Amino acid sequence: MAKATTIKDAVKKLEEARGINAAEAEKVPPIEKMDPTLSTLKACKHLALSTNNIEKISSLAGMDNLKILSLGRNLIKKVENVEAVAETLEELWLSYNAIEKLSGVEKLANLRVLYLSNNKIRDWVELERLAGLEKLEDLLLVGNPLYNEHRDNNTGAEYRVEVLKRLPNLKKLDGIPVDVDERDQAMQARGGA
Amino acid sequence: DDAERDLAAAKPALDDALAALNSIRPSDITSLKALKSPPDIVKRIFDCVLLLRYWPINSVSWQDVKGSMVIAGSYEVAVKMMGDMTFLTALLNFPKEQINDETVELLQPYFAAPDFNYESARKASGNVAGGLPAG
Predict the structure, then answer these.
(1) Which of B12, B23, B83, B98 gives a 20 to 30 Å CA spacing to A109?
(2) Where's the NXF1/2/3/5-like leucine-rich repeat domain (chain A) (predicted)?
């Protein structure tokens, strides 16, 4: 196995392949380790780092235009060091990692989309941490212990109401639009009108 | 308008995909399951199905296959998926409208491999190649 690609190498390779200047590019293909070279990607709106072996989120400072942070299929355990992009970040793609707790996500006040399929979320308290994210409308939890347990017990409908009880602003859950009935049920469960 | 033109452009791809699915018979799956170690490209094809269905998949590792670095398939999970009697029906009823941009990105490293096309998959595996781009 060759040694890991650094972000510097990847940026150089990308520039050569596409004949562009990465500092002005809006989309960057997969690279292996997050390091401060990322701060040069000033125009990047969508950072694609999925399908790698990244263990830690770091070095996002300076990515002033980042809207979509894509880190699916890595080895990430925590959502950390995201404060630097909290003002611009709208979508966080983290499926196929090893995330158990969602602390850290609550700092992303402008988050609209959160993809978390196939992680290790098992407790409702983790979803309660997201309750302050008023713009969050699209959440994906398929393949987490919390989801699988309900799927295996044929209580998928109850699961959806339980999620909506905690996150009443969701428009889409697990790829399926939230319908009026389940929204009403969730509101009643919350003790609302 | 734009939306209708895009829709018309996407229709042939959808028709092709459905035709490819319809060409797979339960006996194809049975004979595939009988193989102890299927061709590498078959393992990668099934990784794509796992990702589209949000099934578990191994953490990524790369291997050299005939001179290009490709992702090692999570075939033990695929075998589990094929063991479900409703597997083919589930594919035929696959909720296409639920595919999101993240999944598309997760498929891209597979599509980038030079051998990931219908011809080489068909040579290796017959009908199970269905769904791959021709040529």
Answers:
(1) B98
(2) 105-175
